[in-house]
């Protein structure tokens, strides 16, 4: 049962990332809970409505969202937490954000048989400067 739920939610997450690339409002609405919040790598938190507005107006344009490996899942009774690495490339308010890798953590809840994302957090992975010898 746990593996089945994890598989369904991982598929929903792949569909959710695809809808961000395609700006597919129907899928967006279905897979994001009304109370959805995204904490992006700058620390800014967007609501579901704010994020959708940014996508539909072109203020945020994803050019790539590619999962780079396995998706880890913690499955509870009505909550699933996902964690994975992803390559991301986008434009925000006309500024190009070059391709980079980030950790993503997403929390899904069961809304009567439909798993919907309620929280997302993306953390950029960066190389640390090396100390001078």
Structural overview:
This protein has 133 residues and is α+β, with helices and mostly antiparallel strands. It has a single domain, classed as Nuclear Transport Factor 2, Chain: A. 28% of the residues lie in helices and 49% in strands. It contains three helices and seven strands. It has helices at residues 2-22, 25-31, 48-56; strands at 32-39, 45-47, 60-67, 72-75, 79-92, 95-111, 114-124. Strands 1, 2, 3, 4, 5, 6 and 7 form a seven-stranded mixed β-sheet that branches. A hairpin with a 2-residue loop joins strand 5 and strand 6 (95-111). Helix 1 (2-22) runs antiparallel to helix 2 (25-31). The longest helix is centred in the N-terminal third of the chain and has 21 residues, at 2-22. It starts with a helix and ends in a 9-residue tail after the last strand.
User: What structural category characterises the helix and strand content?
Assistant: alpha+beta
How many β strands by DSSP? 7
**Regions with little confidence, pLDDT below 50 for 5+ residues:** none
Radius of gyration: 15 Å
Summarize the biggest pleated sheet.
Answer: 7 strands, mixed
Our estimate of the beta-strand percent is over 45%
**Approximate shape:** globular
- Helix percentage range: 25-40%
- Report, as a whole number of angstroms, the end-to-end distance: 54 Å
> How many H/I helical runs?
3
């Amino acid at each position: 049962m746990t593996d089945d739920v994890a598989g369904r939610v991982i598929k929903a997450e792949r569909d959710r990332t695809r809808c961000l690339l395609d700006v597919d409002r129907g899928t967006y609405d279905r897979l994001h809970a009304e109370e959805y919040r995204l904490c992006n790598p700058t620390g800014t938190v967007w609501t579901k409505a704010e994020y959708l507005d940014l996508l539909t107006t072109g203020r945020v344009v994803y050019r790539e969202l590619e999962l780079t490996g396995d998706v880890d899942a913690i499955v509870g009774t009505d909550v699933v937490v996902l964690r994975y690495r992803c390559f991301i490339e986008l434009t925000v308010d006309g500024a190009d954000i070059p391709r980079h890798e980030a950790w993503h953590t997403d929390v899904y809840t069961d809304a009567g048989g439909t798993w919907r994302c309620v929280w997302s957090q993306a953390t950029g992975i960066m190389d640390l400067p090396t100390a001078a010898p």
